[in-house]
Amino acid sequence: MQKLKDKIITEGRVLSDTVLKVDSFLNHQVDPEFSVELGQELARRFAGDGVTKVFTVEASGIAVALTTALALKVPVVFAKKKRGTTQGKNSYSSNIYSFTRQESVDIHVNKKLIDAKDQVLIVDDFLAHGEALRGMAEIIEQAGAALVGVGIIIEKVFQGGGAALREKGVRVESLAPIVSLAGGKVEFAE
Amino acid sequence: MQKLKDKIITEGRVLSDTVLKVDSFLNHQVDPEFSVELGQELARRFAGDGVTKVFTVEASGIAVALTTALALKVPVVFAKKKRGTTQGKNSYSSNIYSFTRQESVDIHVNKKLIDAKDQVLIVDDFLAHGEALRGMAEIIEQAGAALVGVGIIIEKVFQGGGAALREKGVRVESLAPIVSLAGGKVEFAE
Question: Are B174 and B162 in contact (CB under 8 A)?
Fold first, then answer.
């Protein structure tokens, strides 16, 4: 998506070979109309795939998950985060490791909100190592629901999370796949 | 807002005299079109007040803050949460107490995202004791910005946070003010 790539180049800040900050429009300040456009583009890529629910994890994925769900006319569910591991009888849960926070986090979803009839599209702002997505996929499996695919705004291809998902046969669509941040320069895959 | 009150009655679950769960449409699963309607209603109440930015704190306020910002055609900023107290030189921050999680949380915002020219509307899904709002108001003050008002979806009037803000002269608009949850029954103020 060219407009997104342009915005990353103009407003993004490369802090290291692995860290890109897009605070000004994606995950600290959000440009609502642009967020709607991002959601429409993700929805377009999964239109006709029978998505019944969009699924994300709090917090920074909520905005684009909401606009994608709005375009697909389905509800959006967001997994909640809790430190440590807890297994409630009313929730599906998974333990993931946050490389950013360097701690384990438990993500959980009330069992009422995803069931075996659901066809779920996972949406998130970033895909790096893929830990959050692995946890969400686990929850979808626990619910007996089907995973339609994964829609991502910015994929850091060089961190391997996307490749691992694709090898498992998961369809991953990224609006801005980045192959390198080396030398302070953003290099896109396509 | 009648449609919201109806949804609270139909879908909400009163778990105790102080706890109302609205997981199915507001803060775990979100109905995107209804979220747009809620945002439009909050925007209508603050139309013409010169709002330049909508402000919320992650995570559950993000959806309605986004739709309010969309209707007002301004950016939305969300404060990030961190455990403990940290004071970065690049951020405004405030320490708040979460009654739900029973722990202190530091909320912070990059200084670039709110400045002295901003007229800020705070939006959140719930207003109870008002701790999150107090923290956000502090950050707005640190930035030298003006607080236009506070837009809330569900206010638990009996927990006093709204009264404290109104006493300080802050305009608080709640789409569903609840005066009591006693006996498992939701009683609205109006």
Answer: yes
Q: Which of A70, A92, A101, A123 to mutate against chain B (most B CBs within 10 Å)?
A: A70
Q: A57 vs chain B: nearest CA distance in angstroms? A: 10
Distance CA B125, CA B150 (A): 11
ipTM: 0.95
Sequence-distant contacts of A163-170: CB under 8 A, at least 24 apart? A164/A130, A165/A130, A165/A133, A165/A137, A170/A137
* Nearest-by-Cβ selection for A35 from B24, B36, B66: B66
A80 close to B (CB below 8 A): yes
Rounded CA-CA distance B96/B165 in Å is 15
Residue-by-residue pLDDT tens, chain A, 190 positions: 999 999 999 999 999 999 999 999 999 999 999 999 999 999 999 999 999 999 999 999 999 999 999 999 999 999 999 865 556 789 999 999 988 778 899 999 999 999 999 999 999 999 999 999 999 999 999 999 999 999 999 999 999 999 999 999 999 999 999 999 999 999 999 7
* Pairwise CA distance, residues B132 & A62, whole Å: 19
For the beta carbon of residue B59, count every other beta carbon within 10 angstroms: 21
Closest CA to A182 of A25, A14, A3: A14
C-beta separation of A119 from A151 below 8 A: no
Task: Name the pTM for this structure.
Answer: 0.96
Interchain proximity B33–A70, CB inside 8 Å:
yes
